[in-house]
User: Fold these one by one.
Assistant:
Number 1:
Amino acid sequence: MAVLQITLADDLKSRVEARAAEGGYASVEQYLQALLRADLDALGPEDSDLEQLLLERLDSGPGIEFTPDFAERFRREIRERRKSPDGTA
């Protein structure tokens, strides 16, 4: 495991410590790790995961023609999923 050191202003450090305690984290380090993981997870899969997913999709059957109409329906579905609490349309 790598070590990362950061310097925080005293007021920021106090707020981070309070948030960690409120969140039930055993340490500030655990809290910050959770924040970083959540941020990175929001970005989507890592490149290697994405490549594997794309390869699996290539073998999953016939393709879809990406027309302007399809693109609009796709965008609308994604917006609806984002509004849904459980992430499904």
Number 2:
Amino acid sequence: MHSVGDTWAIVLAGGDGRRLHALTTTLGGVTVPKQYCSLWGGPSLLEDALVRAAAIAPLRRICTVVGAAHRRWWSTSLAQQAGENIIVQPRNRGTGIGILLALLHVIERDPYANVVLLPADHYLRDERTMLASLERVAFLAADDTDSVYLLGAEPGAPDSELGYIVPEDRRRDGASRVRDFVEKPSVPRAEALVQEGALVNVFIVAGSVGMLLGMYKKFHSREVMALGGALRAAGGDFGQLAHTYDQLPDVDFSRDVLTRETSVLRVLPVPPCGWTDLGTPERLAEVLKVPPRQSSLAGHRSTGSGYLNLASQWQGRE
């Protein structure tokens, strides 16, 4: 028997969004990371992600990973979050280090926590479908603490700029073991993957905090020891971690952690929901062609701070 803790949501908002800099730079020359932008003048992408997180965890168990350099943008969006739940990185060392810092923080507060990782810079045309999948994957991970669960979206047109998860079987009514990961394949390879039943990796991950940290300890034990020791020495003060971050390598969570331990991974298909990571100007343009009539995120409360409007930026570019 395993002890099962409460579900925690970790929202990942520490990226720089470099591929969209041409669209996220203001007339004054300030580049705004895409998670702090709005698609049509409403809430920011980060605020949308926080609403998704609230569907699976209460506010006191929602943590957000951010960058110190982005404080001017996240300080308003996270005004309702307790300071101890705002995990500030001195600098960006890749998704792997940001997630590791969050996991080390959570395990000190809840050693048996069930954790769901959520990107803060994605868009969903059908939020209800994704929310149902989030609830299901959180339940599966809490019930099976020996596995790590991923969400995989049903692919649309093959895309060589996305990552794919190849399940061991083509079932769509439950989770399957993971046979392989393929990151940014050629167009012919992407077409073949879609035909084989591959799913798009949406980078939503659920598992026990102990299981996730166990994967790090197996392949990145030095980073776990260094960052864990620094965090304890700092007494949880994220502002004291700059020196340790200077010594850490960049770590990509998908490439350097997940793909090295496929035996414990399971993937749950998400029905078609209009998911996109807005990772390129082209994918952003596709979303902006069909604005929603209204937000499908029930209970959404925007701070109304006048976020950079990506639709206006795109129109200005044209």
Number 3:
Amino acid sequence: MRIHRHTAVGFLLVLLSLLLGYRPAAGQQRRALPQQLVGGEFSYTAKRGDSLIGIGARFGVDAAVIAADNNLSASSPLKLGQVLRINNRHIIPKRLEEGILINIPQRLLFHFNEGRLLRFFPVGLGRRDWPTPTGQFTIIAREENPTWDVPKSIQDEMQREGKTVKTCVPPGPDNPLGKHWLGLSIPGYGIHGTIAPTSIYRFQTHGCIRAHADDIAELFGEVSRGTPAILIYERLLIAKIWQQVYLEAHRDVYKKDSDAPRLFEELLQAFNLESVVDRQLAQSIIRKEDGVARPITRGIGAMDSQ
């Protein structure tokens, strides 16, 4: 998703105020960083072949959230021309001067250039028993129409599951890597396309980062070998824009920080927000873990969070 292409649907709300979506270390001074929300609320008209899972994968919002916002069941089939309300508002957890930021719980990739956000888009990440690692890395390889040399660990899994064991998959429509591969300095991992677009915005990979064909094609043209990047794990994000405080809560899929209420209170104290937030509303958002940035400002948060 390129930022300047989404004014029609409300992407890119603001470029002001203070980023609060990180957890300061003990004794660390609070950092004042520029911040912005991305995404927003918009209407989407269902096309032939659409599903809630597919729409959610494309826009970076869980199918269950779309269903709830539209009074549907998660398994509801969509009718051609059906109009859906979509809310995919997100907080950028951290701004980079240059490079790629991927926040695992958010399942979002952000690309920055000269301190400016060029684009963001949803990604698919490692499943619970095969997690995507965190840490800094660089892009060390760029390949169009890549060949997939199947890792031994995945070959072993194929064998255990009674599937045909493949050692190599050539370029083409059956290649799980799609048409673009960005190899990481973390051995064995990459950012790549996929032939299973509904797996995006889910935890279904063997640790790699999957992206929609259009998104990875554009990112591929923007990055080079040596582009810096970082994978982080921030499942609870708070931001303040003007006088409005936003909270975004995600599932602790890798069981790294299960005490979200404690983390929330620490963030409030660190950024002196205790007196301005509606705690009851915030706790409801934390319990739902629906991955949408919602206002929690006392007095005005409740009316805007529906």
Number 4:
Amino acid sequence: MIITDKQKPVLVTGATGYVAGRVVEKLLHEGFTVHATVRKLTDTQKLEPLNKVAANAPGKLVFFEADLLKPDSFTAAMQDCQVVFHTASPFTLSVKNAQSDLVDPAVNGTRNVLNSVNQTNTVKRVVLTSSCAAIYGDNIDLQNTPGKVFTEDIWNTSSSLTHQPYSYSKVLAEKEAWKIDNAQSRWDLVVVNPSLVIGPGISATGTSESYNLVKQLTDGTMKSGVPDLSIGVVDVRDLAIAHYNAAFTPEAKGRYIVSAANSSLLELALMLREKYGNTFPIPKKKLPKFLLILIGPLFGFKRKMLKQNLGFPFIADNSKGIKELGISYRPVKDSIIEFVEQLKKG
């Protein structure tokens, strides 16, 4: 499948999101007409960063109102589109009801968007924003993988409604997407599986968990130390390019781990200390695992989650995306520092 006609629009769902904002920006600068779905057209404050991007780009931005939980609400926005980027999905770690707050919007939203794709003959490719959370649930899962590394062939089987429900929602949503894709042959599905996303978005006032984490590293919340947690990280700008290449590389297929580096909270903190050590109360050591397991429940962290993640490495193989999508990654240190610089302005 080759898509070269920039006269035909593309659709980005959840356009006001952290990742989606950079995807929209990339598409507009490439000259595309972008149909952007948002929850409320009247929320002009949320639309303002996208309008600013559009004002300085050759492409055209058109907003549509759509709701993940309403069937057919994406159909109007999808008319004449050749590619659909489905990025809209809840990302929050503090929920009251995992089923209604996470799973239902993720799964039903994916189903509703792809049902609209099935009704829109112009769509040739769907790029789905999934997550490495659909590949693994806990770091301890690495011990049971071939070669002790996470790859695109692996699925998260350890998460559930009661344990790591966010990860569980990503598994179910991506599996629903593959199920719908496999039932038809007109369009194809390419899935992007990013690790923790960092780096400056198009707005300094985002609401992603990524913003919360980096704020906690600099505002004194973690000044006594960080959990011994290994993670993958990727810059939101590199992730946007990965989405673009997933859409417009004819040979792209299947899943792609998009992760710049296998890192840890302590490594991120030490990168920040080099620049901001005299400015912010940035942590410089790891907290003991036994202590976190002891007091974790007081702060809403379940002991099972802590036991199965703290002290265990995260190792993911990002070579498929580098080879097939031509992804190159900027240094993590640049990403985290530029992120903090943006947050300082927010």
